[in-house]
């Protein structure tokens, strides 16, 4: 088999940047230093409508925020967006190309390094909740141009206070599905119906069928963060005191929920889908995949090129260390036993897992997920059902094996399996006291990768249909453009 590049991990960032630049639509992107930009503004005596964007400094949050800012900036050159990034994120994406009216401002890291973020998401959340507000305030004090609006990730629970104290309208960017939002938003209904507090052995199998627009689901499929009664204040604080609520959802997937919220909530709601991923996808299909890879590509791409069409299962449990070593071992042994080809991306225990995985599996520390999902060798995706991965899989039309672990992943898995019918469950949820066994994993992986079986053919068909429906959303004149236009107009109305 093709061998694994030892330096893969360290080259990850370089590749990430290279790909990001490669992606950029030539018409829209360009780099102009802030100073030049400000000078040109002074010369022209226009005062731009200034927007401050504050993403949560974590993977899965930054890209949707940049997507949103770029889309809005491209709608009107009167808008100037200042995106606040921590030093760490500046080092990752500081040189990425972006519209000339989007610029970056830097604040110190909340914690020393990314390693900490991956290993201890809860600790990182606490640091972001307590240590980031002050440097953002200081930055606000220094801004010369007055602000029309602040756009903040909903996970930045202090953003409402910051904007409120300065009397600036707040737009909150919701990083998960609209369905997860509406569950938090209708928390009172859960309480009234005896579905909170959650006790799985008592009410886990009861049906939640009273949340406007949301297809019925079991209590056990509610976001896992709701399991602990004492966490209620924490997730309720996520429901922001904002004027605008922005989703980064694919409208086709959650139109009923979004429509219900637009009618019933006090927010002005805009859904700005994953446009950059969509454009990137088209770019991948039209450019990269048509010609065979030359020299200088990463080893995993060469390996993928060597595999038969639709024969490889892509496996990713997300970027956090979230399951036990024992569970990782069972997965590795199960994949090996299945006899199927697979590409497993994991930040942890790569070397040890490689040994268990054997000949047919390639284990890498990083890969370009969207590219992999589009590669002709791919036959399926084993996913932890993070919202970002879920959207990428839908856009790529890839059938899924679901293995939800934390947060909002259980409701995403439920939607994938029961509503969209484009995947099967490996397990309903990861349970560290009751591991998914290697033999069970081998069995389901084998069945799933048998592309000719009628049940699997149905999954493929459904995934394709959904993909086509999503494509229509981004085609000219469809919902994405209308929503961006609407939000940009609202921003300009707030201009001072
Ligand atoms: C989604 O997550 C994958 C894997 O972590 C990453 O490669 C990709 O850049 C992310 N995409 C977005 C749009 O955040
Ligand atoms: C959950 O319900 C079970 C069965 O009724 C009970 O034994 C257990 O104490 C409950 N757990 C909590 C945390 O209330």
TrEMBL record:
Q: What are the alphabetically sorted keywords of the record? A: Signal, Transferase
List the CDD domains.
GT1_Gtf-like
What are this entry's molecular-function GO terms?
quercetin 3-O-glucosyltransferase activity; quercetin 7-O-glucosyltransferase activity
Region forming the signal peptide: 1-24
Q: Which residues form a coiled coil?
A: none
User: Per UniProt, what is one Pfam family of this protein?
Assistant: UDPGT
**Family statement drawn from the similarity comment of this UniProt entry:** Belongs to the UDP-glycosyltransferase family.
What is the name of this protein? UDP-glycosyltransferase 87A2
Q: Which organism is it from?
A: Sesamum alatum
Organism lineage: Eukaryota, Viridiplantae, Streptophyta, Embryophyta, Tracheophyta
């Amino acid at each position: 088999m093709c061998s694994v590049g030892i330096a893969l991990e360290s080259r990850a960032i370089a590749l990430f940047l290279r790909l990001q630049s490669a992606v950029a639509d030539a018409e829209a992107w360009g780099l102009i230093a802030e100073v030049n930009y400000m000078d040109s503004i002074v010369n022209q005596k226009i005062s731009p409508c200034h927007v401050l964007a504050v993403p949560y400094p974590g993977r899965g949050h930054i890209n949707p925020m940049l997507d949103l800012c770029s889309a809005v900036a491209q709608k009107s050159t009167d808008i100037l967006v200042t995106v606040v990034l921590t030093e760490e994120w500046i080092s990752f994406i500081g040189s990425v190309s972006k519209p000339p009216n989007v610029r970056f401002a830097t604040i110190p890291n909340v914690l020393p390094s990314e390693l900490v973020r991956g290993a201890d998401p809860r600790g990182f959340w606490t640091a972001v909740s307590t240590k980031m507000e002050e440097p953002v305030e200081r930055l606000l004090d220094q801004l010369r141009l007055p602000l029309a609006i602040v756009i903040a990730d909903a996970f930045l629970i202090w953003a409402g206070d910051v904007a409120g104290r300065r009397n600036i309208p707040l737009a909150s960017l919701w990083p998960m599905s609209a369905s997860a939002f509406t569950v938090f938003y209708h928390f009172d209904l859960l309480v009234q119906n005896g579905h909170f507090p959650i006790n799985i052995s008592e009410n886990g199998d009861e049906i939640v069928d009273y949340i406007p627009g949301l297809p019925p689901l079991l209590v056990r499929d509610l976001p896992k963060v709701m399991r602990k009664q004492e966490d209620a204040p924490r997730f309720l604080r996520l429901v922001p005191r904002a004027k605008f609520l922005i989703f980064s959802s694919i409208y086709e997937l959650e139109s009923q929920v979004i429509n219900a919220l637009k009618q019933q909530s006090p927010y002005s709601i805009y859904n700005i889908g994953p446009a950059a991923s969509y454009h990137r996808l088209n770019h991948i299909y039209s450019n990269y995949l048509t010609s065979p890879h030359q020299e200088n590509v990463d080893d995993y791409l060469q390996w993928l090129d060597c595999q038969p069409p639709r024969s490889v299962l892509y496996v990713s449990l997300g970027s956090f260390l979230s399951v036990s070593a024992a569970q990782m071992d069972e997965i590795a042994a199960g994949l090996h036993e299945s006899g199927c080809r697979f590409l497993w991306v994991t930040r942890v225990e790569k070397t040890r897992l490689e040994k268990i995985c054997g000949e047919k599996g390639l284990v890498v520390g990083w890969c370009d997920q969207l590219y992999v999902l589009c590669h002709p060798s791919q036959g399926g995706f084993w996913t932890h059902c993070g919202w970002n991965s879920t959207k990428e899989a839908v856009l790529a039309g890839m059938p899924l094996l679901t293995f939800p672990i934390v947060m909002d992943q259980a409701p995403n898995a439920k939607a994938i399996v029961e509503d969209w019918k484009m995947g099967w469950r490996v397990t309903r949820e990861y349970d560290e006291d009751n591991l998914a066994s290697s033999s069970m994993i081998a069995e389901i992986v084998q069945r799933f990768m048998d592309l000719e079986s009628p049940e699997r053919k149905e999954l493929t068909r459904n995934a394709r249909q959904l993909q086509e429906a999503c494509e229509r959303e981004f085609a000219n004149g469809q919902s994405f453009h209308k929503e961006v236009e609407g939000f940009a107009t609202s921003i300009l109305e707030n201009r001072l």
